Amino acid sequence: MVTFSKVEDLPSHKVPNGLMHRLIGDKLTVMWGHRGKGSQTPKHSHPHEQIAWLVSGKLDCRIGDGPVQSLEAGTTFLIPGGVEHEFWYREDCEIVEIFSPPRHDLFPGGKHAQGL
Q1: Which pTM was predicted?
Q2: Which of 28, 91, 94, 97 could bond to 55 as cystine, CB 3.0-4.6 Å?
Q3: Residue 87 falls within a domain, yes or no?
Q4: Burial of 36 (C-beta count, 10 Å sphere; 0-12/13-18/19+)
Q5: Per-residue pLDDT tens for 67-95?
Q6: Per-residue b/e over 51-81, b at no fewer than 16 CB within 10 Å?
Q7: Which CATH number goes with the domain that contains 29?
Q8: What is the number of structural domains in the chain?
Q9: Residue range(s) defining the domain that contains residue 98
């Protein structure tokens, strides 16, 4: 099915740590997220390949065994499936993340969305 939406018209979902997501997709997941200054995404991994674009703000991240990297708006990065990663948001951030295969756990009712 073809759909057209403005990002702000997609349903928003609050998830643990006060983060907010807007999600779309059946065969892959595209997530628009707002992360508040001082928030963090704890170290975790998932089997999904993840590509991200930091639209605005600044964050620090560690991917795998690599050093902490400081990223600014306009940066893109790829995280292979199964690789641990964590983020610290130094400013309010807007980030677009793409996952394949789809992250059904991020949608309302999914394990991640419930904070489990």
Answers
A1: 0.80
A2: 94
A3: yes
A4: middle
A5: 999 999 999 999 999 999 999 999 999 99
A6: ebebeebbbebebeeeeeeebeeebeeebee
A7: 2.60.120.10
A8: 1
A9: 17-106
